[in-house]
Amino acid sequence: MSARNRILIVDDEKPIATLLAQTFEQEGHRVMHAADGIDCMNKMASFDPDVVIMDIMMPKLDGVDTTRLIRRNSKYNGTIIVALSARADDETRGRMKEAGANLFMRKPFVIAKLVDRVAQMLATRSGSR
Prior knowledge:
The protein is of the alpha/beta class. Helix content is 47%, strand content 19%. It is globular.
């Protein structure tokens, strides 16, 4: 991953959000946390993330609906959305894919695998510009 990508972590589980933030900050990236989908939408314009790591099961506005809202704005067509959920059935995966997620990973996840997959997607995106 090239340094200084902006990564928005959207997760209501503070320990997971903290782990993700620390990991990506150690990689040299700017990180912001949103506690739920409403908070995410409020932070999208000011932070303009390259990557959104989106929990699916959240109060107020879940990850599926939040992803749909992000994808409705053409400004975020190039934003990578990684969905995370403990619920990994085909229906949940399908709903996130239909909403516009680029990748789905099941919780618990291997942090190194998540970092590698995000790096691959960023490299592919940068190569296509």
